[in-house]
Amino acid sequence: MLKKSFSIISLGCPKNTVDSEVLKGYLEKLCCNYLQEPEDADIIIINTCGFIDSAKEESVETILETLELKKTDPGKKILLTGCLSQRYPEQLRTELPEVDGIFGIDSWDKVIENIIETSEPCEDVEKIRSLLTPGHFAYLKIAEGCDNSCSFCSIPLIRGPQKSRSVDSLLREAEYLSQKGVQELILIAQDLTRYGSDLPAKPDLFTLLQELLSMKMFPWVRLLYGNPDFWNPKLNALFQKYPELCPYLDIPVQHASPRILKLMERGYDIRKVKRKLLRLRRDVPTIALRTSVMVGFPSESDDDFNMLLDFIEDVRFERLGVFTYSQEEDTKAAELPDNISPEEKERRKDVIMQLQWSIAQEFAESKINQTIDVIIEENAGEYFSGRSRWDAPEIDGFVRVRSEKALEIGKFYKVKIDSAEGLDLVGTVV
Fold first, then answer.
1. 320/291 same-domain check
2. Distance separating alpha carbons of residues 58 and 92, to the nearest angstrom
3. Is 174 in the same domain as 274?
């Protein structure tokens, strides 16, 4: 009997990527054959995103494009999982009857049963994942769901309250990934900083990082997605104690106007947040801070917007992303009038990005004549492309590396930075 072949299209954030990798690992263990190109596979699984309007649109467009493959191959099976199908299963069944199966999040058993027509108990994820990322980096999802109640966010509606994993299970999975050759481990959750608050023993992020970093399994460990309200300054010392912990932190603030933050139900005092971030800069002088901000939230005035600009100017985030507000049904913010025009939202976004460009360019130019560690990602022909400690995969910039000899993908090299081109660095292997 021929093996069934499958392909996975994973959309959205790295948390979705981890879910896709777990599902891929289960199916491979059950003797299904993974194919990278969807058109070649018997079964196509689309792990959807349903976070904001643009993500929903991308998911729907991907589904429609994939359904086109059934016109030439009617026997092909297309299955949906992830956030969009968790949130809108009935609408998807009604509007896309050609889809062969619609499953929510944490439905690996049901997806597997649909594919191999038998019920298989899903084991723990610790030693089952099959990576979709390049082999030299991987994500470690330390918790699912979220206990924060931001008025604009649909994540708690989709993924539920926070469910942290035990320290032991995370260390076992990290060891498994290390044995697979992973060089950079990236910790992710909807909110890293609340890790463990739902567990009986109440371990925290500091406890987990101490255990993980003391095992010396990875040259680089990176932190994504922390809430500034719950960032504990005692974590600052870990960056100095463990060189493996990349001096990089993704810590979304969303806004800086106290009035808008109150409407967002972010809960924190922006002055305290600013003090925390400036203290982090003092304690870890080499750190690069990434944040996300939102413009065009209902009733955002010029004064509110200028407060956000001033905050960005004062803290000077090395990395920054801007989202325009989109109304999400069933959230508290959806009850507010969406009274900022799309054109004005885009204008405000452009103003912030112009400011951010100058800040990020200044940071890039500060690295000229320094020798830094770079992990090589690809051979781009005229040069090799890599990342520094201050660049997370797929969201930040690159280091363009010149070398007279071939460089190995996924390996670290010392690179002397010669110049900056835009926000990217250019250098030569030492």
1. yes
2. 14
3. yes
Q: Which amino acid is at 327?
A: Q
pTM tops 0.90: yes
Residue 319 pLDDT exceeds 50? yes
Six-digit token pair at 91? 């609408």
Torsion of CA 364, 370, 371, 375, to 10 degrees: -10
Q: Do 224 and 316 share a domain, yes or no?
A: yes
> Which two structure tokens, joined as six digits, stand for 172?
């076992």
CB atoms within 10 A of CB 222: 23
Q: List, for residues 99-131, the tens digit of each pLDDT value.
A: 999 998 878 888 888 888 766 666 666 778 999
Same domain? 305 vs 381 = no
Please provide residue 428's backbone torsions phi and psi, each rounded to the nearest 5 degrees.
Answer: -125, 140
Parallel, antiparallel, or unpaired: how do β-strands 319-324 and 220-223 relate? unpaired
The Cα-based distances of 376 to 212, 234, 391, 411 in angstroms read 24, 32, 12, 6
Say which DSSP state 384 is in: E
Q: What is the pLDDT of residue 155?
A: 87
CB within 8 A of 421, min separation 6: which ones?
400
> Is the pLDDT confidence value at 403 over 50?
yes
Residues 91 and 149 in one domain: no
From 341, 365, 389, give the residue that closes a domain: 365
Please state at what angle helix 302-315 crosses helix 342-365, rounded to 10 degrees: 10
Q: Give the CA distances from residue 311 to residues 183, 273, 293, 368, 391, in Å, rounded to whole numbers and listed in that order.
A: 35, 10, 11, 27, 22
The reply to whether 23 and 85 lie within a common domain is: yes
Same-domain status, 39 and 160:
no
| C-alpha span between 385 and 18 (Å, rounded) | 24
Domain end, chosen from 347, 365, 383, is at 365
- Render pLDDT for 272-308 as a digit per residue (tens, 0 to 9): 999 999 999 999 999 999 999 999 999 999 999 999 9
CA 426 to chain centre: 26
CB atoms within 10 A of CB 172: 15
Same-domain pairing of 416 and 330: no
What CATH number corresponds to the domain at position 32?
3.40.50.12160
CB within 8 Å of 86: residues ≥ 6 apart: 50, 104, 105, 158, 159
Domain with residue 411: its CATH number is 2.40.50.140
How many domains is the chain built from? 3
Q: What is the pLDDT of residue 123?
A: 63
Distance (Å, whole) CA 203 – CA 187 = 16
Rg over alpha carbons for the chain, rounded to the nearest Å, is: 22
Q: Which domain holds residue 385?
A: 371-429
